[in-house]
Automatic annotation (TrEMBL):
The keyword Glycosyltransferase is assigned to this record: yes
Entry-linked PANTHER family: METHYLTHIOADENOSINE/PURINE NUCLEOSIDE PHOSPHORYLASE, PURINE NUCLEOSIDE PHOSPHORYLASE-RELATED
UniProt entry tagged with the keyword Transferase: yes
Protein name as catalogued: Purine nucleoside phosphorylase
Pathway per the UniProt entry: Purine metabolism; purine nucleoside salvage
Family label: Belongs to the PNP/MTAP phosphorylase family.
EC nos: 2.4.2.1
GO MF annotation, one: purine-nucleoside phosphorylase activity
GO BP term (any one): nucleoside metabolic process
Domain Nucleoside phosphorylase residues, every copy: 21-267
Amino acid sequence: MLKYIEETAEYLEEKGFKSPEIGIILGTGLGQLLNHIEILKEVSYNHIPNFPTATVEFHKGKLIYGNLEGKKVIVMQGRFHLYEGYTLQDVTFPVRIMEKLGIKTLLVSNAAGAINLNFKKGELMLIDDHINLQGSSPLAFKGVSLLGERFTDMSAPYDKKLNNTFESIAKTHNITLHKGVYASVVGPQLETRAEYRMLKIIGADAVGMSTVPEIIVANHLNLKVAAVSVLTDECDPDNLEPVNIDDIIANAAKAEPNMITLFKELINSL
C-alpha cells in the first residue's frame, strides 16, 4: 500500500494539489458546498492511479482542490462504500492520500436514519461517537503498522474542540444540531424492524452505511476529525413505512443550507 500511496500522491501533486490543510468528504446533503469553493484543480477518480471509482448514482466521482474561507481544501465529491463491493482498504484509501498531501483536519458528512425518535428528518446530528457494525476494520491488514499505530486509540475519535465549535455555530445561527452516536452497517438494504430495535438497545441515535471506516483511518493517521449526519428518515420500528429514496434525497436537500453554514463557519474558524 505504501507504494500505491506514494504513486497516487505524486500524481496529484503534479496536477497541482499542493499543501491542502483540510479534507472534506461530501456525503449526501453537502454537494452544493462546491458552489462556495474557488476551484483551482479537479480530477475524476477514474483518472487517479490506484483510486476506486464511485458507483452510486447520486455520488459524483471527483477530487477537487481549491480555496474555501481562506483555507486550502481538498474535497471528495462522492465517497466509496463497502456495499459497492470495495474492501475497507479501498474505501479509506482517499483519506490516506489526503493526509499524505498534507491535510491535518478531516470533515465528513453523511445521510443517516434517525433511530432516536426525538430527532426528526431534515435535522442534523453531530457525531459524538460511533459503533462499527461493518464486520471488520480498515486497519486489519498486513503491514498496517508501517502507516501508523496498529492498535489505534479510539477513546475520543471525534475532536472535542471541533465539535464544540460546530455546536457554537449552530447556536449562533439557530440551527437544530443534535449530538449522538452513529452506527455504521454494511447495507445496501435498509434495516428491518428488529434491527432498528437492536440499534436502539445498543445505544445508536442514527444509522448509516459509511463514515466509520474513514474516521478509523483518520485516527490512525492522527488527523483531527468531525462528522455531521443529515437525518433523512425516521426509523420507528412500530410505524415503519417502505423506504422512499426520493424522500431521502429531498430531506438531504432541505438540510443542505444548514450543513453548508456549519462547514463554512467551522473552516473559517480554523
